[in-house]
Amino acid sequence: MTLFRFSTDPIDPTALRAALEGAAAGGYSSFEGWVRDHNEGRSVRRLEYEAFEALAIKEGERIVSEALARFGVERAACVHRLGALEIGETAVWVGVAARHRHEAFLACRYIIDAVKHRVPIWKKEHYLEGDSGWVNCERCAAPAEPLAEAGARAPAHQHRHEHEHRSAPHSETQSAAAPDYSRQMVLPEVGAAGQARLGRAAVLIVGCGGLGVPAMSYLAAAGIGRLGLVDADVLEASNLHRQPLYALEDAGRPKVELAAERLRAVNPALDVRTYRTRLDPGNASDLIAGYDIVIDCTDTIASKLALNDACVRSGQPAVFASVYQYEGQLQVVRPGQGPCLRCVWPETARDGLVGACAEAGVLGPVPGVLGTLQALEALKVLLDLPGQLTDAVLMVDLLTLNVTRLRARRAPDCPRHGARGTGSLQSADAASVEIEFGSLQAAFAAGYTLIDIREPAECAREPAPGAAVSAIPLTQLLYGPPPASLSQRCLLICTSGVRSLAAAGELRARGHAHVYSLRGGLAALARAATA
């Protein structure tokens, strides 16, 4: 007999019971839920049921299988109606045949309570004055009682018709203020023991932006005991398309404060600790101390390497991710067990040579996907789930939806990676490379050749103001024939000074000793002009 199924025809309890009979069964228990003519003082005319059948049947079969295994019964089945039902019709039937009545009672109650709590079924009640709209039946039922509490009582579940849009809390359901982890605790790999493990876990998230928002949101909702948040920035309006945890009215406030408020609203039991600072080689070890796993959600190579080195020294696992336009990559570092960041990327570009979101652009869901994967990998590590990302880097192309897993090996000198004193790749001293001017005219008058390294589209949108400026895009400057002007004193210009500083450092490393960067870029000149 099928363990769980739906029916659009009336349910025949007699025929269903006959299918469960057998010589080994000495006890039989059943439950029938009928459509009644009233609910909460309102007259009901009829009901309708719908379900996400593929998922619902799979979950229903899992529930009946659980009852068979847990209670040692001989046979069990459940049938639920779909479509329109009239008053008095049977909406749901559960039958259990067992050697003894006690097991039959317990299994029957377990099945009906679990079905009403876990299976995705929707109903619509038709009243004399209108209908209720479609309501998820999972929200209308109290969770299945733990086995220890069920005792030997006969099944007493009623087919309730309460609605999720009602404002008053139901006395039989969990308080709205208390986190409910029942959906993930149903997973056999999680259960009560796994949930308790999450409650004892401490996770540090470095960066509260496009990657950090989904990572911290899912971990807080999953029931992590303590979350540490590291970020030095304030919210900007341009952040919101990829950081929907925040609101436009919050622009200008520190992200760590905003994130802590939002996460405590999601999970009042969460211990949130904020660190309004930027992680660097000097503070990385102190920041990660006391946390079980670290999630890197930064957008600079220097911060990633500083965090990598600190985790290699301390032996703490870390989950790294980065995005570029429509692409992303993911790596889990388990010190002593697999490759670290420096093993995979022994030679990396300088910060600024690969465009950040402000220059390269990004669609909001791209960091959203990668940050979600970071949360998933962190939960795998904390729960010791199968399928963890080890000895590989995951490359994701969100335009084509191609996913590539690149094998990675631990370098022979990996243990020494953590001994590095700095995560920065800047070989040139920024203090000697960056120069501040009040205007481009002043820089030109001082004898500097001005080179705008922005992309042509950027230059067209915002031309460099009022001076003789040569436009040479960054890629052409670095990878094309060196322009003759590099032999003179050159001042590189970009929007914010990040790309120009990185390019100046790279060119100096190649032997061009007279290349400088405009501190703060055109944005600094604009602020000075309006001050």
Sheet with the most strands: spatial strand order: 13-12-11-14-15-16-17-18
CATH homologous superfamily caption of the largest domain? NAD(P)-binding Rossmann-like Domain
Alpha-beta classification: alpha/beta
- What proportion of the residues is helical, as a percent range? 25-40%
Distance between the termini: 80 Å
Report on this structure.
This protein is an alpha/beta fold and 531 residues long. The protein has 3 domains: 4-166, Alpha-Beta Complex (Aldehyde Oxidoreductase, domain 3), CATH 3.90.1170; 193-417, NAD(P)-binding Rossmann-like Domain (Rossmann fold, 3-Layer(aba) Sandwich), CATH 3.40.50; 430-530, Oxidized Rhodanese, domain 1 (3-Layer(aba) Sandwich). Helix content is 34%, strand content 22%. The protein has 20 helices and 23 strands. Strands 13-12-11-14-15-16-17-18 form an 8-stranded mixed β-sheet, with helices on both faces. Strands 3, 4, 6, 8, 9 and 10 form a 6-stranded antiparallel β-sheet that branches. Strand 8 and strand 9 (130-131) form a beta hairpin. Helix 7 packs parallel to helix 8. It is elongated and about 100 Å long. The model is unreliable at 139-176 and 421-428 (pLDDT under 50).
Describe the structure in brief.
The protein contains 20 helices and 23 strands. With 531 residues, the protein is of the alpha/beta class. The strands form four sheets. An eight-stranded mixed sheet has the order 13-12-11-14-15-16-17-18, with helices on both faces. Strands 3, 4, 6, 8, 9 and 10 form a six-stranded antiparallel sheet that branches. Strands 19-23-22-20-21 form a five-stranded parallel sheet.
